[in-house]
Amino acid sequence: MRRRTEVVSTGSRDLQQCPSGGDPESRPLPPEAHPSCPRTSRLCLSPGQTSPLGTLFPAPPAGSLQGTGPAIGCQATDRGPIPCCLALFLLALLGELWLPALLYAAWLYLDRETPARGGRRSPWVRRWAVWRHFRDYFPITLVKTAPLDPSRNYLFGFHPHGVLVAGAFGNFCTEATGFGELFPGLTPHLLMLPFWFRLPLFRDYIMSGGERLVSSDKASVSYLLGHEGGGQVAVIAVGGPPESLEARPGALTLQILSRKGFIKAALQHGAALVPVFSFGENELFHQVPNPRGSLVRAVQERLQKLMGLALPLFHARGVFQYSFGLLPFRRPIHTVVGAPILVPRTPCPSHQAIDRLHATYLERLITLFEEHKTKYGVPPEKHLNLI
């Protein structure tokens, strides 16, 4: 039987191995936390011991502001600037800067294809030091289980969506966790809803920042997966916005059984499929109770159909206290990249071919989860709930 090898990267170069044979973690603890750890060591776990999510990294002492800066940056990087961008554009349009605003609107029309053609890239921005602080806040770790040939194009199926897709952003939109070192020759692109690229100023903010955020429409996916010479990775959160309504600590529900568009795209372009599971993604926020059939869920689903966006009512911790706020909890995220599923190029795939590949993908995804769940705090008796 062939042994599966794993390469784990947090992007840090200063992790020390504990003398007990345990695994180092990114949050320093006092030396009394483990009797055999030297003062400079990190948290030690006995061989074979796992720590449940949410208890591995206890909250800092009351009154401490440690780590809140990167979390605020996370909120701002995602959707925080939207109101500011819209307000600035409207103030310019209705004020003395109406002419530059109109010229910008005309340029938006001329530049409308850019989000579907790879966006704008800046390797320099991907290596900003702020992303390392963002990584260390949770912390985020990228785990490689198999090599990926850079001469191919890949479609990464990211699970679960979570509330803010923090693991996908930290691993694939920045170099904080060492994606370029683990997968040399590959260029990742995280797909976002086309809606965000229609908002003035905000669309240029997310494209020109270098984070490789691109539109998730069909043209964008085809552009990436059809790239001559390979080396392109399209990362899609398969569950989409509706799955974010299921994101809460302990949840393992994936909306995937009826989602086959990414399977068809992989077949049409012959792109290899790679299941990716991000352990800890759902542990970052609580949500207002919204069971199926409730008034809250009905309103959320109605808004999702009208706007194409899901609006989870989430909360976590604040800056000065840890019981309520909009900052994410400090919970470890381990994003495990599975082995590729090689896909033959089929320009016009049949329904049967799509269903077969979809079944294979589900099998590989479940296997990936089951093989790694106990390492990252998921109890052995818990399993994925596919809907």
Distance between the termini: 33 Å
Number of domains: 2
Mean pLDDT: 81
| Major sheet: arrangement of strands | 1-2-11-8-3-6-4-5
**Fraction of residues in β-strands:** 5-15%
Helix percentage: 25-40%
Shape: globular
Number of strands: 12
Order of helices and strands: EHHHHHEEHHEHEHEHEHEEHEEHE
Describe the protein in words:
The longest helix is centred in the C-terminal third of the chain and has 22 residues, at 351-372. The protein has 387 residues and is α/β, with parallel strands linked by helices. The radius of gyration is 21 Å and the shape is globular. The strands form three sheets. An eight-stranded mixed beta sheet has the order 1-2-11-8-3-6-4-5, sandwiched between helices. Helix 1 packs across helix 5 (129-137). It is 32% helix and 13% strand. The protein is built from 13 helices and twelve strands. The chain has two domains: 1-49, no CATH class; 71-386, no CATH class. Residues 13-65 have low confidence and may be disordered. The protein has helices at 68-78, 82-94, 98-110, 123-126, 129-137, 166-172, 179-182, 202-208, 218-225, 240-244, 261-269, 295-307, 351-372, and strands at 7-9, 140-144, 154-159, 187-192, 213-215, 232-237, 253-254, 272-279, 286-287, 314-315, 333-337, 385-386.
